[in-house]
Amino acid sequence: MTIGMKIRQFRHQKGISQNELADLLNVAQTTISNFEADRTLPDIVMIDKIAKELDKDVSEFLANDAGSFINEGQKGGVTFQNIGTVDTINSISDKLIEQYEKRLEEKDEIICMLKEQVKNN
Fold first, then answer.
1. Is the pTM here over 0.70, yes or no?
2. Could you give the CA distance from residue 30 to residue 33 in angstroms, rounded to a whole number?
3. Residues 82/47, Cβ–Cβ less than 8 Å
């Protein structure tokens, strides 16, 4: 299933129209229509925004139907499925790195907080 098909499916599940989703994202309704018809592919930032508005995780848009981001076993090794251009893949990687770094910072903050609590007790 393509990203566009998933946008349509998740939008229908949430019970909102293309116009409503477009308003939430501050884009034209035709942008949503183009995404859903696979005429254009949203970048990872837009996929992230769409995911949030539809109460989904970004990975649900990027994984193939088997739940994997990649398809192993094809000639030539591992290939990406339904993700798009190299720029899109790089954007996805950058977003995942940002999320990882944010989680590391949150972990460090929790550790500092716990150390302070232990120190004060």
1. no
2. 5
3. no
CA dist., res. 64 & res. 72, Å (int) = 12
The pLDDT mean for the chain works out to 81
* Single-letter amino acid code for the residue at 16: I
- DSSP result, the chain: --HHHHHHHHHHHHT--HHHHHHHHTS-HHHHHHHHTTSS---HHHHHHHHHHTT--HHHHHS-TTS-SEEEEETTEEEE-S--SHHHHHHHHHHHHHHHHHHHHHHHHHHHHHHHHHHH-
Inter-CA distances, 69 with 19, 58, 118, Å? 30, 12, 42
Model confidence at 20: pLDDT above 90: yes
Which architecture, in CATH terms, is 3-120? Orthogonal Bundle (1.10)
Residue 26 C-alpha from the chain's centroid: 18
Q: Binning pLDDT at 50, 70 and 90, where does residue 74 land?
A: very low
Residues of 55-89 as b/e, b for ≥16 C-beta within 10 angstroms? Answer: ebebeebbbeeeeebeeeeeeeeeeebbbbeeebe
